[in-house]
């Protein structure tokens, strides 16, 4: 089981985020580079990714794979190795959260490939690099929000990580390379706004894929009584955490 302790950002040790499938595996495989949330990222560095218990519908998987297939086609990449399976109730691997910006900042960030900017579909965009997956995913229960892995799970998981080769590795530039938290909401607001990708620049198939991905996230949220995000936010089917335990310090290790 994962730790029941959801804590303040200064107390995170081996933080973990539970996500619905297929979004969870797409992130761990490095296909998904931006995790969309309605709240800003409270952590930097390694973030463990756990898949929630709900089995994804084939239509949802198809919509999200089509979405990323079209995004990568913008960069001339047509051979994407999607996950063969989308396991549930499993710890899948980890990513490195290097920053968090608003959707407005991401879509106008001209230094990034257009395909990355188009991943900005929610209020806050968690920027993820260096994905790693577990050779054998661990069965465990997830929790709402960001929480700490139990020590024994962490110690086993960290030994079972395998490098991932993303279709298009991305490096998000920091405003201040010496400050790991310099890439935060509002940090790019002082820059001149770049040009958004207009509808005319998008192919009909890309427009359809974006609409399909949005519809899949919205329908998923309706079925689970949760606000739509691009990451399958956990609101209903994973164990909640009380306000008392939120105040406790986590029990994992660095």
UniProtKB/TrEMBL annotation:
Residues 168-203, 218-254 are annotated as: Disordered. It holds the Pfam family ASCH. InterPro entries: ASCH_domain, PUA-like_sf, TRIP4-like. Residues 17-123 form the ASCH domain. This is Activating signal cointegrator 1. It comes from Sesamum indicum (Oriental sesame). The gene is LOC105158454.
């Amino acid at each position: 089981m994962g730790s029941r302790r959801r804590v303040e950002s200064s107390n995170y040790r081996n933080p973990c985020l539970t996500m619905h499938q297929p979004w969870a595996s797409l992130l761990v495989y490095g296909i998904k580079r931006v995790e969309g949330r309605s709240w800003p990222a409270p952590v930097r560095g390694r973030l463990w990714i756990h898949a929630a218990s709900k089995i994804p519908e084939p239509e949802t998987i198809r919509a999200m794979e089509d979405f990323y297939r079209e995004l990568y086609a913008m960069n001339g990449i047509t051979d994407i190795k999607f996950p063969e399976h989308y396991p549930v109730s499993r710890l899948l691997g980890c990513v490195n959260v290097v920053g968090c910006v608003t959707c407005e900042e991401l879509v106008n960030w001209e230094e990034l490939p257009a395909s990355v900017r188009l991943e900005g579909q929610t209020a806050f965009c968690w920027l993820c690099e260096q994905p790693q997956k577990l050779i054998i995913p661990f069965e465990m229960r997830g929790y709402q929000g960001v929480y700490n892995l139990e020590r024994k799970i962490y110690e086993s998981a960290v030994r079972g990580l395998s490098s991932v080769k993303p279709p298009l590795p991305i490096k998000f530039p920091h405003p201040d390379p010496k400050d790991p938290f310099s890439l935060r909401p509002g940090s790019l607001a002082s820059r001149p706004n770049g040009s958004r990708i207009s509808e005319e620049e998008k192919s009909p198939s890309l427009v359809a894929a974006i609409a399909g991905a949005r519809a899949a996230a919205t329908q998923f949220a309706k079925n689970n009584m949760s606000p739509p995000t691009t990451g399958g936010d956990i609101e209903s089917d994973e164990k909640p955490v009380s306000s008392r335990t939120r105040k406790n310090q986590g029990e994992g290790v660095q």
